Amino acid sequence: MREPEAPTKPRRQARSRFGAGATGLLVAVMVVALVVACVLSVFFGSRSVTFGQVIQAFSMPSGAAGDAGQDAGITGEVVRLRVPRTVLGMLVGAALAVSGALMQGVMRNPLADPSILGLNSGAAFAVVCAIATVGLSTPAQYMIVALVGGAAAAALVWVLGSLGRTGATPLKFTLAGAVLGSALGSLTSAIMLPRADVISTYRFWQVGGISGARFDLMAPVVPMLLIGFAIAAVSARQLDMLALGDQMAAGLGVNVTRARALAWAGAVLLSAGSTALAGPIGFVGLVVPHAARIIVGSDYRRIIALCMLIGPLLLVSSDVIGRVVSRPADVEVGIVTALIGAPVFVALVRAGKTAEV
Protein backbone atom coordinates (compact mmCIF):
# COMPACT_ATOMS: atom_id res chain seq x y z
CA MET A 1 0.00 0.00 0.00
CA ARG A 2 1.37 3.40 -1.00
CA GLU A 3 2.15 5.68 1.91
CA PRO A 4 0.50 9.11 1.81
CA GLU A 5 2.82 11.89 0.74
CA ALA A 6 3.67 14.33 3.46
CA PRO A 7 2.02 17.68 2.92
CA THR A 8 4.27 20.30 1.45
CA LYS A 9 4.35 23.59 3.24
CA PRO A 10 3.64 26.43 0.82
CA ARG A 11 6.64 28.60 0.23
CA ARG A 12 6.49 32.27 1.01
CA GLN A 13 6.68 34.13 -2.28
CA ALA A 14 9.79 36.28 -2.46
CA ARG A 15 9.23 39.86 -3.42
CA SER A 16 11.46 42.26 -5.26
CA ARG A 17 13.80 44.28 -3.08
CA PHE A 18 13.13 47.28 -5.30
CA GLY A 19 10.07 49.34 -6.06
CA ALA A 20 8.54 49.32 -9.53
CA GLY A 21 10.30 52.53 -10.52
CA ALA A 22 13.70 51.39 -9.26
CA THR A 23 13.29 48.01 -10.97
CA GLY A 24 12.44 49.66 -14.28
CA LEU A 25 15.45 51.96 -13.97
CA LEU A 26 17.74 49.05 -13.14
CA VAL A 27 16.50 47.07 -16.15
CA ALA A 28 17.05 50.11 -18.40
CA VAL A 29 20.60 50.45 -17.08
CA MET A 30 21.25 46.77 -17.83
CA VAL A 31 19.89 47.17 -21.38
CA VAL A 32 22.30 50.06 -21.95
CA ALA A 33 25.13 48.03 -20.39
CA LEU A 34 24.40 45.11 -22.74
CA VAL A 35 24.50 47.42 -25.76
CA VAL A 36 27.81 48.86 -24.56
CA ALA A 37 29.21 45.35 -23.97
CA CYS A 38 28.24 44.31 -27.51
CA VAL A 39 29.89 47.42 -28.97
CA LEU A 40 33.06 46.77 -26.96
CA SER A 41 32.97 43.14 -28.09
CA VAL A 42 33.21 44.32 -31.70
CA PHE A 43 35.98 46.85 -30.99
CA PHE A 44 38.28 44.82 -28.73
CA GLY A 45 40.35 41.86 -29.83
CA SER A 46 43.87 40.85 -30.73
CA ARG A 47 44.08 43.80 -33.13
CA SER A 48 43.10 47.40 -32.44
CA VAL A 49 40.20 48.59 -34.57
CA THR A 50 39.08 52.19 -34.96
CA PHE A 51 35.50 53.40 -35.22
CA GLY A 52 35.96 54.20 -38.90
CA GLN A 53 37.25 50.72 -39.62
CA VAL A 54 34.26 49.17 -37.87
CA ILE A 55 31.88 51.31 -39.94
CA GLN A 56 33.79 50.34 -43.06
CA ALA A 57 33.52 46.67 -42.14
CA PHE A 58 29.74 46.83 -41.86
CA SER A 59 29.24 49.05 -44.93
CA MET A 60 31.59 47.19 -47.30
CA PRO A 61 29.68 45.03 -49.83
CA SER A 62 30.18 41.30 -49.65
CA GLY A 63 33.30 40.24 -51.55
CA ALA A 64 34.77 43.75 -51.66
CA ALA A 65 37.30 43.02 -48.94
CA GLY A 66 39.54 41.12 -51.32
CA ASP A 67 40.92 44.32 -52.92
CA ALA A 68 41.21 46.35 -49.71
CA GLY A 69 44.77 45.36 -48.73
CA GLN A 70 45.48 45.65 -45.03
CA ASP A 71 41.94 46.84 -44.37
CA ALA A 72 40.71 43.49 -45.68
CA GLY A 73 42.30 41.75 -42.71
CA ILE A 74 40.62 44.15 -40.31
CA THR A 75 37.30 43.83 -42.09
CA GLY A 76 37.53 40.05 -42.09
CA GLU A 77 38.35 39.99 -38.38
CA VAL A 78 35.39 42.17 -37.48
CA VAL A 79 32.85 40.45 -39.71
CA ARG A 80 34.03 36.83 -39.52
CA LEU A 81 35.15 36.66 -35.89
CA ARG A 82 33.88 39.38 -33.60
CA VAL A 83 30.28 39.71 -34.75
CA PRO A 84 29.50 35.95 -34.64
CA ARG A 85 31.37 35.77 -31.34
CA THR A 86 29.18 38.51 -29.86
CA VAL A 87 25.99 36.90 -31.17
CA LEU A 88 27.04 33.52 -29.78
CA GLY A 89 27.81 35.10 -26.42
CA MET A 90 24.32 36.56 -26.25
CA LEU A 91 22.67 33.29 -27.30
CA VAL A 92 24.64 31.10 -24.90
CA GLY A 93 24.30 33.56 -22.02
CA ALA A 94 20.52 33.73 -22.40
CA ALA A 95 20.20 29.96 -22.86
CA LEU A 96 22.28 29.08 -19.80
CA ALA A 97 20.53 31.63 -17.60
CA VAL A 98 17.01 30.57 -18.60
CA SER A 99 17.98 26.90 -18.34
CA GLY A 100 19.21 27.49 -14.79
CA ALA A 101 15.97 29.26 -13.87
CA LEU A 102 13.89 26.39 -15.26
CA MET A 103 15.95 23.78 -13.41
CA GLN A 104 15.69 25.68 -10.14
CA GLY A 105 11.95 25.89 -10.62
CA VAL A 106 11.55 22.20 -11.48
CA MET A 107 13.76 21.07 -8.62
CA ARG A 108 12.66 23.75 -6.17
CA ASN A 109 16.38 23.85 -5.45
CA PRO A 110 18.36 27.11 -5.50
CA LEU A 111 21.56 25.23 -6.37
CA ALA A 112 20.24 23.56 -9.53
CA ASP A 113 21.98 24.34 -12.81
CA PRO A 114 23.25 22.37 -15.84
CA SER A 115 26.71 21.76 -14.40
CA ILE A 116 25.48 20.55 -10.99
CA LEU A 117 22.75 18.28 -12.39
CA GLY A 118 25.12 16.31 -14.60
CA LEU A 119 24.32 17.68 -18.07
CA ASN A 120 27.78 19.18 -18.56
CA SER A 121 29.33 15.94 -17.30
CA GLY A 122 27.30 13.98 -19.85
CA ALA A 123 28.46 16.24 -22.67
CA ALA A 124 32.08 16.03 -21.49
CA PHE A 125 31.97 12.25 -21.21
CA ALA A 126 30.58 11.93 -24.73
CA VAL A 127 33.25 14.25 -26.14
CA VAL A 128 36.09 12.39 -24.40
CA CYS A 129 34.78 9.01 -25.58
CA ALA A 130 34.55 10.30 -29.15
CA ILE A 131 38.06 11.77 -29.03
CA ALA A 132 39.50 8.53 -27.68
CA THR A 133 37.69 6.21 -30.10
CA VAL A 134 37.17 8.06 -33.39
CA GLY A 135 39.61 10.98 -33.15
CA LEU A 136 37.09 13.80 -32.76
CA SER A 137 38.75 17.06 -33.82
CA THR A 138 36.49 19.61 -35.53
CA PRO A 139 34.05 22.11 -33.92
CA ALA A 140 31.09 20.59 -35.80
CA GLN A 141 31.93 17.16 -34.41
CA TYR A 142 32.28 18.51 -30.87
CA MET A 143 28.90 20.19 -31.18
CA ILE A 144 27.03 17.08 -32.32
CA VAL A 145 28.60 14.74 -29.77
CA ALA A 146 28.22 17.19 -26.87
CA LEU A 147 24.57 17.74 -27.77
CA VAL A 148 23.86 14.01 -27.75
CA GLY A 149 25.80 13.47 -24.52
CA GLY A 150 24.09 16.31 -22.65
CA ALA A 151 20.63 15.23 -23.79
CA ALA A 152 21.31 11.60 -22.84
CA ALA A 153 22.50 12.62 -19.38
CA ALA A 154 19.38 14.74 -18.89
CA ALA A 155 17.14 11.84 -19.91
CA LEU A 156 18.94 9.52 -17.50
CA VAL A 157 18.58 12.03 -14.65
CA TRP A 158 14.85 12.21 -15.37
CA VAL A 159 14.50 8.42 -15.39
CA LEU A 160 16.47 7.98 -12.16
CA GLY A 161 14.58 10.83 -10.50
CA SER A 162 11.24 9.23 -11.43
CA LEU A 163 11.93 5.81 -9.94
CA GLY A 164 10.13 4.64 -6.83
CA ARG A 165 6.59 4.71 -5.52
CA THR A 166 6.43 8.49 -5.13
CA GLY A 167 7.44 9.16 -8.76
CA ALA A 168 9.37 12.24 -9.76
CA THR A 169 10.34 14.51 -6.88
CA PRO A 170 12.76 17.47 -6.69
CA LEU A 171 14.96 15.73 -4.11
CA LYS A 172 15.37 12.59 -6.24
CA PHE A 173 16.16 14.69 -9.32
CA THR A 174 18.87 16.56 -7.42
CA LEU A 175 20.39 13.37 -6.00
CA ALA A 176 20.26 11.65 -9.39
CA GLY A 177 22.01 14.60 -11.05
CA ALA A 178 24.71 14.76 -8.40
CA VAL A 179 25.40 11.01 -8.52
CA LEU A 180 25.38 10.85 -12.30
CA GLY A 181 27.64 13.90 -12.61
CA SER A 182 30.13 12.42 -10.17
CA ALA A 183 30.11 9.03 -11.91
CA LEU A 184 30.55 10.50 -15.39
CA GLY A 185 33.29 12.80 -14.14
CA SER A 186 35.20 9.82 -12.76
CA LEU A 187 34.76 7.87 -16.00
CA THR A 188 35.93 10.87 -18.01
CA SER A 189 39.09 11.12 -15.92
CA ALA A 190 39.69 7.37 -16.22
CA ILE A 191 39.59 7.60 -20.00
CA MET A 192 41.81 10.69 -20.21
CA LEU A 193 44.58 9.89 -17.74
CA PRO A 194 46.31 7.14 -19.78
CA ARG A 195 45.94 9.16 -23.01
CA ALA A 196 47.99 12.35 -23.29
CA ASP A 197 46.64 12.96 -26.80
CA VAL A 198 43.05 12.91 -25.50
CA ILE A 199 43.89 15.36 -22.70
CA SER A 200 45.59 17.71 -25.17
CA THR A 201 42.57 17.77 -27.48
CA TYR A 202 39.89 17.82 -24.79
CA ARG A 203 41.29 20.64 -22.65
CA PHE A 204 40.56 23.31 -25.26
CA TRP A 205 36.88 22.36 -25.37
CA GLN A 206 36.56 21.71 -21.65
CA VAL A 207 37.29 25.26 -20.42
CA GLY A 208 34.28 26.63 -22.32
CA GLY A 209 34.61 29.45 -24.82
CA ILE A 210 33.08 31.31 -27.74
CA SER A 211 36.25 32.32 -29.59
CA GLY A 212 35.57 29.92 -32.46
CA ALA A 213 32.09 31.25 -33.20
CA ARG A 214 30.79 30.84 -36.74
CA PHE A 215 27.30 31.46 -38.04
CA ASP A 216 27.28 28.21 -40.03
CA LEU A 217 27.97 26.22 -36.84
CA MET A 218 25.35 28.11 -34.86
CA ALA A 219 22.58 27.72 -37.43
CA PRO A 220 21.65 24.05 -36.73
CA VAL A 221 21.33 24.66 -32.97
CA VAL A 222 19.46 27.98 -33.04
CA PRO A 223 16.03 26.40 -33.77
CA MET A 224 16.49 24.12 -30.76
CA LEU A 225 17.31 27.13 -28.56
CA LEU A 226 14.27 29.01 -29.85
CA ILE A 227 12.05 26.03 -28.98
CA GLY A 228 13.64 25.97 -25.52
CA PHE A 229 12.90 29.67 -25.00
CA ALA A 230 9.30 29.14 -26.13
CA ILE A 231 8.87 26.25 -23.68
CA ALA A 232 10.31 28.43 -20.91
CA ALA A 233 7.73 31.14 -21.62
CA VAL A 234 4.90 28.59 -21.59
CA SER A 235 6.17 26.94 -18.39
CA ALA A 236 6.64 30.13 -16.36
CA ARG A 237 3.14 30.24 -14.88
CA GLN A 238 3.17 26.54 -13.99
CA LEU A 239 6.53 26.95 -12.24
CA ASP A 240 4.91 29.59 -10.04
CA MET A 241 2.31 26.99 -9.08
CA LEU A 242 4.92 24.28 -8.48
CA ALA A 243 6.72 26.62 -6.09
CA LEU A 244 3.69 26.35 -3.79
CA GLY A 245 4.23 22.60 -3.44
CA ASP A 246 3.03 19.63 -5.48
CA GLN A 247 -0.20 19.10 -3.57
CA MET A 248 -1.28 22.73 -3.73
CA ALA A 249 -0.32 22.94 -7.41
CA ALA A 250 -2.41 19.85 -8.14
CA GLY A 251 -5.27 21.41 -6.19
CA LEU A 252 -5.04 24.46 -8.45
CA GLY A 253 -5.47 22.27 -11.52
CA VAL A 254 -1.83 21.77 -12.55
CA ASN A 255 -0.74 18.37 -13.84
CA VAL A 256 2.44 18.30 -11.78
CA THR A 257 4.26 15.56 -13.69
CA ARG A 258 3.47 17.05 -17.09
CA ALA A 259 4.38 20.59 -15.98
CA ARG A 260 7.69 19.41 -14.54
CA ALA A 261 8.48 17.32 -17.64
CA LEU A 262 7.75 20.25 -19.98
CA ALA A 263 9.94 22.66 -18.05
CA TRP A 264 12.68 20.02 -17.81
CA ALA A 265 12.55 19.50 -21.59
CA GLY A 266 12.98 23.24 -22.16
CA ALA A 267 15.92 23.35 -19.75
CA VAL A 268 17.55 20.39 -21.50
CA LEU A 269 17.18 21.94 -24.95
CA LEU A 270 18.74 25.19 -23.76
CA SER A 271 21.56 23.72 -21.70
CA ALA A 272 22.50 20.97 -24.15
CA GLY A 273 22.40 23.40 -27.07
CA SER A 274 24.55 26.01 -25.33
CA THR A 275 27.04 23.37 -24.15
CA ALA A 276 27.29 22.01 -27.69
CA LEU A 277 28.04 25.50 -29.04
CA ALA A 278 30.42 26.79 -26.38
CA GLY A 279 31.50 23.94 -24.14
CA PRO A 280 30.69 23.58 -20.43
CA ILE A 281 30.44 27.15 -19.10
CA GLY A 282 29.66 27.23 -15.40
CA PHE A 283 28.05 29.64 -12.93
CA VAL A 284 25.86 31.49 -15.46
CA GLY A 285 22.88 29.19 -14.91
CA LEU A 286 23.50 29.24 -11.17
CA VAL A 287 24.05 32.93 -10.44
CA VAL A 288 21.87 34.76 -12.97
CA PRO A 289 18.47 33.40 -11.81
CA HIS A 290 19.29 34.44 -8.24
CA ALA A 291 20.18 37.95 -9.38
CA ALA A 292 16.93 38.12 -11.37
CA ARG A 293 14.94 36.87 -8.39
CA ILE A 294 16.39 39.59 -6.16
CA ILE A 295 15.41 42.26 -8.69
CA VAL A 296 11.90 41.15 -9.73
CA GLY A 297 10.77 38.71 -7.02
CA SER A 298 9.50 35.14 -7.47
CA ASP A 299 7.31 35.57 -10.57
CA TYR A 300 8.90 33.21 -13.09
CA ARG A 301 7.58 35.15 -16.05
CA ARG A 302 9.65 38.12 -14.93
CA ILE A 303 12.58 35.97 -13.81
CA ILE A 304 12.86 34.28 -17.21
CA ALA A 305 12.53 37.57 -19.06
CA LEU A 306 15.25 39.17 -16.95
CA CYS A 307 17.51 36.11 -17.30
CA MET A 308 17.45 36.72 -21.06
CA LEU A 309 18.99 40.11 -20.35
CA ILE A 310 21.38 39.41 -17.48
CA GLY A 311 22.76 36.17 -18.99
CA PRO A 312 23.96 37.79 -22.24
CA LEU A 313 25.27 40.79 -20.30
CA LEU A 314 27.36 38.54 -18.03
CA LEU A 315 28.73 36.35 -20.81
CA VAL A 316 29.52 39.10 -23.34
CA SER A 317 31.11 41.26 -20.63
CA SER A 318 33.18 38.30 -19.41
CA ASP A 319 34.33 37.65 -22.96
CA VAL A 320 35.42 41.28 -23.37
CA ILE A 321 37.29 41.15 -20.05
CA GLY A 322 39.03 37.96 -21.15
CA ARG A 323 40.26 39.66 -24.29
CA VAL A 324 41.47 42.83 -22.55
CA VAL A 325 43.40 41.34 -19.61
CA SER A 326 45.69 39.18 -21.73
CA ARG A 327 45.99 40.90 -25.11
CA PRO A 328 46.90 39.76 -27.70
CA ALA A 329 45.87 36.33 -26.32
CA ASP A 330 42.39 35.50 -24.98
CA VAL A 331 41.28 34.13 -21.64
CA GLU A 332 38.36 31.82 -22.42
CA VAL A 333 35.00 33.06 -21.20
CA GLY A 334 34.40 29.94 -19.08
CA ILE A 335 37.36 30.89 -16.89
CA VAL A 336 36.20 34.50 -16.51
CA THR A 337 32.61 33.57 -15.63
CA ALA A 338 33.93 31.23 -12.92
CA LEU A 339 36.13 33.98 -11.49
CA ILE A 340 33.19 36.41 -11.48
CA GLY A 341 30.40 33.98 -10.60
CA ALA A 342 32.03 32.22 -7.66
CA PRO A 343 32.46 35.29 -5.40
CA VAL A 344 29.08 36.69 -6.46
CA PHE A 345 27.33 33.46 -5.53
CA VAL A 346 29.17 33.26 -2.21
CA ALA A 347 28.00 36.81 -1.49
CA LEU A 348 24.40 35.82 -2.31
CA VAL A 349 24.61 32.80 -0.01
CA ARG A 350 26.07 34.86 2.83
CA ALA A 351 23.29 37.38 2.40
CA GLY A 352 20.69 34.58 2.61
CA LYS A 353 19.26 35.19 -0.83
CA THR A 354 19.22 31.59 -2.03
CA ALA A 355 16.62 30.23 0.38
CA GLU A 356 13.56 30.71 -1.83
CA VAL A 357 12.92 29.76 -5.43
Helix fraction, binned, reads over 70%
Low-confidence stretches: 1-10
Number of strands: 0
H/E series, N to C? HHHHHHHHHHHHHH
Basic shape: globular
Task: Tell me the major beta sheet.
Answer: none
Radius of gyration: 21 Å
What is the CATH homologous superfamily assignment? Answer: ABC transporter involved in vitamin B12 uptake, BtuC
In terms of structural class, how would the helical and strand content be classed?
mainly alpha
Q: Beta-strand level of the residues, as a percent range?
A: under 5%
Q: How is the quaternary structure best described?
A: single chain
Total individual domains: 1
Alpha plus pi helix count: 14
> What is the CATH topology descriptor?
ABC transporter involved in vitamin B12 uptake, BtuC
Mean pLDDT: 81
Any idea what the CATH architecture is? Orthogonal Bundle
Intertermini distance: 33 Å
CATH class: Mainly Alpha
Report on the structure:
Keywords: Membrane, Transmembrane, Transmembrane helix. Pfam families: FecCD. The chain crosses the membrane at residues 21-44, 87-105, 117-136, 142-161, 173-193, 213-236, 276-296, 303-321, 333-351. This is Iron ABC transporter permease. It is built from 14 helices and no strands. It has 357 residues and is an all-alpha fold. The chain has a single domain, classed as ABC transporter involved in vitamin B12 uptake, BtuC, CATH 1.10.3470.10. α3 (70-107) packs parallel to α9 (222-242). The chain is globular. The protein starts with 19 loop residues before the first helix and ends in a 7-residue tail after the last helix. Residues 1-10 have low confidence and may be disordered.
